[in-house]
User: Fold this.
Amino acid sequence: MSRRLVVWESHHDNGWTTTVAEQPGGVFVLRLRDGSAEGFSGQAGSVSEACAAALEALARTTGHVRCSLRCSEWALSLEPESEGSRD
Ligand SMILES: [Zn+2]
Assistant:
């Protein structure tokens, strides 16, 4: 049986998506995505830190300094753990 990972995802008005994924061991991995392109990624020790870091990285990478009403809130979802995930 495979465990499921908790993933927070937020879509932004400039087409970028920020995701924060919980990893085994209490590490949270943050990513920026723009369709095919993948931007900054990093790690943080808590969900709130990871979300804040993701938004900072989004601002640095894409100039998206402030979220608008067209940006979505962080939405929680569950994803199956990928087979080849790193430790
Ligand atoms: Zn936004």
